[in-house]
Every structure is written in structure tokens, then in C-alpha cells.
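> Could you send the Aldehyde dehydrogenase prediction when you get a chance?

Sure thing. Input:
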Amino acid sequence: MTITDTTASAPQVADREQVFIGGRWVDSTGDEWVDLVDSWSEQRAARIRTATAGDVERAVAAARKAFDDGVWSGKTMAERADVVEEIANRLEQRTEELTTIGVLEVGIPVAVSAGTQQMTAGLFRAVAEEARTFEVREDRTRADGGISRILKEPTGVVAAIIPWNGPIGTIAFKVAPALAAGCSVILKGAPDAPLSPAVFADVIAELVAEGRIPEGVVSVLIADREVSETLVTNPDVDHISFTGSTVAGRRIAALASERIARVSLELGGKSAAIILDDADLNHVLQSLPMGSCMQSGQACIALTRVLVSRKRHDEVVEALKAAYGSLPMGNPWEQTNFLGPLAGERHRDRVQGYIAAAVEDGATVVLGGGRPEGIDQGFFVAPTLIDGVRNDMRIAQEEVFGPVISLITYEDEDDAVAIANDSIYGLSGAVYTEDLDRGYALAQRIRTGTISVNGAVIDFTVPFGGYKQSGVGREGGVEGLDEFFETKTVHMPA
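Output:
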């Protein structure tokens, strides 16, 4: 890999001493804090006040009252869409601040972080556009001549629970359509990434002060798992929308099932990239390294299983070693870097534990495997290619969440499909071939929510979500907006 290690350093960010409830920054009922550690310098970057169970209860009560009063939900879709678009404008004005925070929270290099912020504003605008044309009423004539009116109504009070690896983008996936639908929202951020939600709260505070969003409609809290569970189990929360690990998703689904609460889940992935024998390696190398190592592999959609035939195995492995080995890596504040450190020391150790387990299972590290040479600070794991992986190994079945790629050999096309589908996950994937019809046919055989032919397309303005234990429901596009509506049928006589 190319190592760029300059003296560029992080700008200062402010501590957050209050919690955000109902559109205002207020004192917490407790005195709990969390430290944000910069994964490059390994030093504390900021302190943030975390919410108590009492703060959660206050936020839910405010959201319930705001929704039941109907001031926000009673506005037209067009009126709410205008506010969602204004959120996009104001987040865009904070691009520099959010870019800095993205580097601190996730470890992604500054140029990558800047792109994420631009994507986020675009997602808010895309939701606004969908909302302006979304039909909330349809009349159907029954066989008896009467009318059945089909109504779309907001799901109610939404708990939007987001992960640490892409906080600002995930806010767009959940909060933008929830607000456009007329819901009230309690946004719960991860303690490992607390500042992006705080900046979003600043935007909401401005709009509340200007009277564009009613008080109570939006709260933003940072909370640990125990406190977060009080949000999931609160009977005044109608809908839980969660992004995170499959393990946590199972827990949330189990808690919500006790009261049959509505649940939307975007969970883990172990996505396969199938390289067919006719594939042009130039096409593979143009997209696969990015598709598997985005955010240093800290992405649920990462293509972390690469399937190649015995016939082309050696050729592909050598090409991938050269490609991954040349990815610019180092100081995340250096504009030319594509890969930075992982988000924390504990996570770094977890990723290295998976690499060690793969070797114990009989696989071979052909590139990387630990800290990159020449970098003596930060929580780094170099891009790692592991050959000789069987699909029943831990490294092939569990989500590593780091820049670790498993190379798996298949016998024929049917075997490749079987290996790709032999997973509890089904979130993303790719097929590389020069025959697009063949690629499309093969894509239909893979049990996954999103799959690309000759690429690693990332477009969250169209439906995104998973099969199997990768989730329930969809985000993005009109389907993502529809997640935040209930359907009511009103029968009327002829």
C-alpha cells in the first residue's frame, strides 16, 4: 500500500454538555459522559453528555404529545417536504464541521468524509422530492358500487436508532422520510459517534426556533445499550427503525415483539463478489477495492467475500494483491489518503482476532494482516487478503467490519451461487462478467437485497435493504418513504 503520513492534525471540536429534547438543548437528569477518542491521535477529542432513562422518557412524552396534537402530521406532504429540503441546505452549510467530525468518529480520511456529507444532503433532497409526489389517498370502486378510500397515515412516534460507522448518512435514511411522513422522531445515536447527531440537533433547534418544526417533534439523544432499551420498550413508541449489527437487531426485534411494535431493521452483511471466468480484470480492479474497503471495511455493504474459479485463481490473487497493496493509507487528515484507522482500539483488536482465527482454521494471509509498516500511531489494520478460505470458516460467515477480504475458490457457476447464498446475510453483492445478460441472470439467483453487475454501485436514493438476517424493510427511494406510513382503508356506501 501507499503510505502517506504527514503532520496534518485534527481541528478542535466542542464538548456537548446538554441533551436535546423536543427541539431544545436542556440539562440532563443525570451526569453521565462519554469520551470521543480520535482514532488517529489516540487522544480524547471531545466529551459528550449521555442521556438517562429519565431523559428518554421526557423525549418520548414530548414526541407523543406533538404527534397526538397533529400540528406536524397535519401539514401537507409538500409543506413537510420544504422543511426536509431546508434541513439539507443547513447541513450543507455545516459541511466543514461535519467532515471533521466524520474523521474523528469513524477514522475515514478527510476527502472521503467530505463526500459522505455531500451524499447526506443529497439524500434529504431526494426524500423531499419523493414526498412532493407521494400519494396519501386513493379511491377504489368496490364491486357493490361503493368507494373504499385507501389512506396513508404516519406510523406515529419513531425511535430512529443509528450506528457509529455512518451516523450522518443514517440520519438521512431514517429521519428524513420519518419527518416527511409526519412522524415525531427520537433519534438515538451511538456513544462511539456522538457528535454528528449533535450537529443535526443544532439544525433542528434553529428550525424549531423559527417555527418551522413544532416543539416536541424531534429529540436527539446519545445513550448506552441499557438506556436505549427503555426507548425500544416504551409503549408510546410506535415504530422502531434500527441500523446496526444483526445481534443487536435480534434483541430489538425480540423486545418489540412483546408489544407487537412496528420494526424496520437494516443489519449486517457478508456480501460476495463473484468473478466469472470471462470477467475483464480491469473492470474488477476499478471497483472491487473500493467496494470492499470503503471506510476501511467498516460498512455493512462491503464486498468481503471474493469468489474466483480455480482456472483464474492465481491470476486474480496476484492482481488483487497489487491493487489492495497500492491503496493510499495513513493520516486521515491528509487529502490523498483513501484508508484511515479503524474507529477504536477495541474494534482494531477484534478485527485482528478474526485474522488470527482464519489462520488457525487453515487459511493464508497473502497481504496485510496487521499494522501497516511505517505507521506507528492510530488504530490501523492494513488491507488484508486471506486466501484458501472455505465458506464454512468463521472469517467467511461472520461480519468482520474491517478491510479484510476472504478469497474463496469455486468449481463452476452453480457452485459460486451456492457459496454466495450460503450465509445468514443477504445485503449486497456483485457479479463480474463481460456478458451482461449472463450477469443479470446470475444476479437474480443471489439471495440479496442489492447486487451490481461489473461494479460496486452505491446509490441510496433507490431501495436499499437486505434478505434473511440482513434486515426487514427498505430505505431509500419511495419504498423508504413508505416504511413510515400505515395503510388505512375507509369503506363508504355507494
